[in-house]
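Entry for the shared binder. Reason: the reviewer on the internal report wants the predicted structure included alongside the sequence.
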Amino acid sequence: MGGKSQTEYTAILCDLRALVRPDKAAFLPGFFRAVPGGYGEGDVFLGVVVPDIRKVARRHRTASSSTLAQLLEDERHELRLCALLIAVDQFGHGTDEGREQLIELYITKLDRVNNWDLVDLSAPKLLGAWLLHRDRSLLDDLLASEHLWRQRVAVLATLAFIREGDFADTLRIADRLLHHEHDLIHKAVGWMLREIGNRDVQELERFLKRQYPKMPRTMLRYAIEKLPETTRQDYLTGRA
């Protein structure tokens, strides 16, 4: 690593360490299932809350790509999240060339985007925004990987499409993941369906009328959360 990157990395680490809260250091590993057998097994937490990580990311918003790569390789969760927040900021203000480099880094380091908050805060504003007007076959590759976090990245990336009124990929992916075994995928798909309903409730209900009997309960509950109570109960009791 070059001298500049090492300096940036050290400065970011020092800033994060200064914001450590012992109560959060004790709480976060359990919250993110960083326990033996948990979906976050092996993750390490300093104990810094997201608002404080955002402050550090803003302070270091010009960090180099090599610094971001180093942060993403770090075992400490907050350093990886800080790198992703910096990348999101740089992507939003960058040139086409700069955005392409950030997406290349994101895809190369995707195995380090390995908990739900890391996915949710990065996939829509990086990969989703990048694919908005491009070929989206990468999403199918991620789904076919049978890797939990890659699959959640594919689901969450479609939030960028939903925000533009484009629901087709979300609905197609929801069909494909109806029988997925993991609760975190059920929640992600249900959330994206709810986002569709926030914009076009008829589109959501067309999907539900066709698929709700097959949907995992968690997915269904997330999808119908904003519907009128009587409609919600019809779906939950099978009367819809």
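Summary line for the report: The radius of gyration is 19 Å.
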